[in-house]
Design goal:
single chain, mainly alpha, 0% strand, globular, cell membrane, DUF318, Permease
Length: 332
């Protein structure tokens, strides 16, 4: 039953077969040809991701209604030390789905006087790890890969927060005087009808904000899967190139997308035989170190602290990538 859930419910193999049958039997198209294979990949992945997106985001935003920023502040204020970093990283899994949504909440936390290490653990975890992305990853890569991504994401968030706290760089924070809007800060007091309306509203807002990145990601994935020779991909990103993890990390940073936009590209790389650690590094670089979020953070972090944050996360991503490449045979 679990395999059926992963393959048919999350993975939607029935949808892939349905689209193949229509293209082959009804339209007489050969899905093994690059052009029609790309069309099949694009249609299947787009429908699949959008269906999962609507369903999972609705479920997760309903859960998020119990953790508005004010309540999250109250919870975090009760902890310090490594316990506080772990709690902050875990709370990041039930908050916004992209870094540019997380930054305003991070600013609110710093203005509330929460310990720096906790706020940075939250900042790293929030766009990187959430329940929806875990289930989406299961649909593409299976249970082991999904769990590995979530675990290493949380570990990176906890260690990153601890290291920044140890460096005592509180004086490197800028005073941010602009108003910070905390969406649905009153949701802690919602009744069930209000929570459902909150989930519906946020789902539509999130989908509206990310669908274009999903379409671009699916398009890039279709091109990689059907037009770029596998030998070329593996020559650059395969096991034989020791710089593969570094390359995808550098490529990922300038890209602005959330976890959902990276999935089709990651899937195409996986199908081409790219090692798991290299795929993880790409996804983490895009979601945790996007250029727009770094620009936003420059409004509240001085250059030294901003550089420390980027450096710690980047080095963590590289370590994770190379570590999992060494053990990828047991991961996928």
């Amino acid at each position: 039953m679990f395999d059926f859930f992963i393959e048919q419910v999350l993975g939607m193999k029935w949808l892939a077969n349905f689209i193949s049958n229509i293209m082959i039997s009804n339209l007489g198209l050969d899905v093994m040809e690059p052009l029609w294979g790309s069309v099949h990949f694009f249609i299947y992945d787009t429908i699949k991701i959008m269906l999962l997106l609507f369903t999972l985001i609705f479920m997760i935003t309903y859960i998020q209604s119990y953790f508005p920023p004010e309540r999250t502040k109250k919870i975090l204020s009760k902890f310090d030390g490594i316990t506080g970093n772990i709690i902050a990283a875990l709370l990041g899994t039930v908050t916004p789905f992209c870094s540019c949504s997380s930054v305003p909440i991070f600013i609110g936390f710093t203005r509330a006087g929460l310990p720096m290490g906790l706020t940075f653990s939250f900042l790293i975890s929030s766009p990187l790890v959430d329940l929806a992305s875990m289930l989406m990853l299961m649909s593409f890569f299976g249970v082991n890969f999904s769990i590995a991504y979530v675990v290493v994401g949380l570990v990176l968030a906890v260690i990153g927060g601890i290291l920044i706290s140890m460096l005592k760089l509180d004086q490197e924070m800028r005073e941010y005087t602009q108003p910070v809007r905390e969406l649905y800060s009153e949701s802690e007091e919602f009744n069930q009808r209000q929570r459902l309306e909150y989930a519906k509203t946020d789902t539509m807002l999130i989908v509206k904000n990310v669908y274009q990145y999903i379409l671009v990601g699916v398009g890039v994935g279709a091109l990689i899967h059907n037009w770029v020779p596998q030998e070329m991909i593996l020559a650059v990103l395969g096991d034989d190139n020791p710089f593969g993890v570094l390359i995808v990390t550098m490529i990922g940073v300038p890209i602005y997308a959330d976890i959902f936009g990276t999935l089709p590209i990651a899937e195409a790389l996986y199908l081409a035989g790219v090692p798991a650690g290299t795929i993880l590094a790409f996804m983490m670089a895009v979601t945790a170190l996007s250029l727009p979020s770094i620009i936003m953070l420059s409004n509240v972090l001085k250059p030294k602290l901003l550089g420390v944050f980027v450096g710690i996360v980047a080095v963590g991503i590289l370590i994770i990538g190379y570590f999992f490449n060494a053990f990828s045979s047991s991961l996928l």
